[in-house]
Amino acid sequence: MAPDVIARVRELIEHGRIPAGSKLPPERTLAAELGVSRPALREAIKVLSGLGMLESRHGSGTYVKSTEPVPDLLPSLADAGATELKVLDLLEVRKILEPRAAWLAATRASERQLLDIENARQRLELRDRDWKLAAKLDYELHAAIFRGAQNPILLLIYEFLMSRIMRGRFEKVRFAPDVQQMRKSHEAIVEAILKRQAAAAEEAMIDHLHNVGMDFIREASR
């Protein structure tokens, strides 16, 4: 599927294997390396070019223009770092996006993506009592679910929003979730996704985000 190809090309760029300013390998070579068809690769390149990450130069080839999507694609969020954003507003947006992402992941995720989701859950469970590290691992788990949803625009919205917020004001918020509840919630979400139970995955994500909200409200009231 094209969304999976897009994610894999992005990984090459973001992990530095094809750094900014460098030229993409020949189409035939890159398609063979990724194990995808050339038409699927062309579609992925077209999308990433539209996002401002790649640039096609006539007669020369395709080059990496940026390692991140152009902020202008999300103009209302472009100045998020300078805006007074509220945690409960963020949770409200997450409640809109993430249950559907879980539903989509249960129906669309490749076997590799399912493995990535489960591995991310296990990494978080091993370190979930170190909240500073757990916050990063929690983000990685949810991002893996969004990748499994195989909608590149949905993933970009999530990544862009979370990156602005996590490196902004919210990184200073004191937040101590119920670890046991968080484990149960993540297990329920991931189990439903792995079993391709879309409705159950969606419902489990709704419950999880409700619990996250209650944890924050309890902490803020102390």
Largest sheet: 2 strands, antiparallel
| Helix-and-strand structural type | mainly alpha
The number of distinct β-strands equals 2
Through-space gap between termini? 48 Å
Overall CATH class of the largest domain: Mainly Alpha
The portion of residues assigned to helices is 55-70%
Cross-sheet strand order for the largest sheet: 1-2
Radius of gyration using CA atoms only: 18 Å
Order of helices and strands: HHHEEHHHHHH
Q: And the CATH topology of the largest domain?
A: Four Helix Bundle (Hemerythrin (Met), subunit A)
What brief labels describe this structure?
two-stranded antiparallel sheet; 222 residues; 2 domains; mainly alpha
Question: Please, could you describe this protein's structure?
Answer:
The protein contains nine helices and two strands, in the order H-H-H-E-E-H-H-H-H-H-H. It has 222 residues and is mainly α. It folds into two domains: 2-64, Arc Repressor Mutant, subunit A; 73-220, Up-down Bundle (Four Helix Bundle (Hemerythrin (Met), subunit A)), CATH 1.20.120. Strands 1-2 form a two-stranded antiparallel ribbon. The chain is elongated.
Topology:
Elements: H1 2-14, H2 27-34, H3 38-50, E1 54-57, E2 61-64, H4 87-108, H5 111-127, H6 131-149, H7 152-166, H8 179-194, H9 198-220
Antiparallel strand pairs: 1-2
Helix pairs in contact: 1-3, 4-6, 4-8, 4-9, 5-6, 5-8, 6-7, 8-9
Summarize this, please?
With 222 residues, the protein is mainly α. It has helices at 2-14, 27-34, 38-50, 87-108, 111-127, 131-149, 152-166, 179-194, 198-220; strands at residues 54-57, 61-64.
